[in-house]
């Protein structure tokens, strides 16, 4: 299942503007496909509790309603990224990733790749500033 299909299907369901009437099973399959994609990309983190989770995609939904899930994105990392950028004039993906993992409470499952993508998204969205990735994983503000 490709991202474009998930996006289109989810927006049709949300707006109820699809030409076809989707069955409940098709809607569930689309939403589960989207969740699986987010899980495999590392955008949703399922913190491991005291017991090992053998089937990460299904087990948490079955075992407990008290499991927690963390969705990683600019909405919850933006302020940290901007603070480091303002203070240092550069952002090192590895350092910020370690900092995020040290937050605990499930954040230790955050992947460096996801943090890197979020950093790029946040820095490229800062108005009036230009940022460049001079070497892999090191973003530096250009003085304009």
Model description:
With 144 residues, this protein is an alpha+beta fold. It has 2 domains: 3-63, no CATH class; 72-142, Winged helix-like DNA-binding domain superfamily/Winged helix DNA-binding domain (Arc Repressor Mutant, subunit A, Orthogonal Bundle), CATH 1.10.10.10. It is built from 6 helices and 5 strands; from the N terminus they run ααβαβαβααββ. The protein has helices at 3-15, 24-41, 59-63, 74-88, 93-101, 112-124; strands at residues 44-45, 70-71, 90-92, 130-135, 138-142. It has a 3-stranded antiparallel sheet. Strand 4 and strand 5 form a beta hairpin. Helix 5 packs across helix 6 (112-124). The radius of gyration is 18 Å and the shape is elongated. The model is unreliable at 50-65 (pLDDT under 50).
Chart the SSEs and their pairings.
Elements: H1 3-15, H2 24-41, E1 44-45, H3 59-63, E2 70-71, H4 74-88, E3 90-92, H5 93-101, H6 112-124, E4 130-135, E5 138-142
The helix content, as a percent range, equals 40-55%
- Treating each run of at least 4 consecutive H or I residues as one helix, how many helices? 6
CATH superfamily of the largest domain: Winged helix-like DNA-binding domain superfamily/Winged helix DNA-binding domain
Note the overall shape.
Answer: elongated
Radius of gyration: 18 Å
Q: Give the low-pLDDT segments.
A: 50-65
Strand content: 5-15%
The number of strands is 5
Mean pLDDT: 75
